Amino acid sequence: FNAYTQELKLKGRTFDDLIISTAKKELIDDNIFALLRHAEVITRRGVDTNRGIMLAGPPGVGKSLTLDAIVDKANCTVLYADFNMLHKIMDEIFIIARKYAPTILILEDIDALGITGQRGMFGSGAGLSNLLNNMDGITSNNGVITVATSNHPEQLDWALIARPGRFDVRMDYSYPDHELLHGILALKLKMYPTTERLELDKIVKRMPLGFTGSHIQDIVNQSNYIAINQANGDIEGAKISQAHLETAFERSLYNFNKVLSERPHVKLTGAPNANKVLKR
Question: Is the pLDDT of residue 30 over 90?
Fold first, then answer.
């Protein structure tokens, strides 16, 4: 449920829908699910059972999908809060999380809290201090596992992300390479009827740096729309073909290039600037 105690309507996405490295899966298991499975033994040993995990990276690379998979697998209280909820009732959110522990507390898009920069330099203000105190203050957070997402971790205050006891673990998501993009496209197409001999490589090799799983999801969605429309609503005859995929890709690529051309100053993480990407 969310911070206003409204039950969440889940999307049903699981780890089967997520392509991430074995190392990331182990990191999630060791720092989330192991604490839930073995909480009694860990506590008996005198080790804290509170944890902070930061999922960091540009939009569309799988952070929200990872959250969905964690929620699906979790056998405990799950409490979700966006930046607006944190602004209004931060103390109450942590009180609820502690009361109903074991709890996975999800803080999505933590950048939007406006706690960028360093205190004393950029005036991060009371919002940051309150969050720091709630995560690692006088009150014990045992049993509370906080999972946050950030699009711009480099702008967050060091006291929040560079000190164990707040966010202890960081998982970085970069733009996927062509091999990963191929895997994502193949995975997302698995649930739909397709014609034989699709040449996915032909499409994937044209995907520019900065294309993400979100772009591929849009391509698959549009391919379904085109196939169903051309089959005049006949679901049996509405198979996704190479032509459908290529048309959908061209549309998605146009939108992608248009956004970059309007923002030549934008630099993709670990990548050349937008103008160089467009010239590839």
Answer: yes
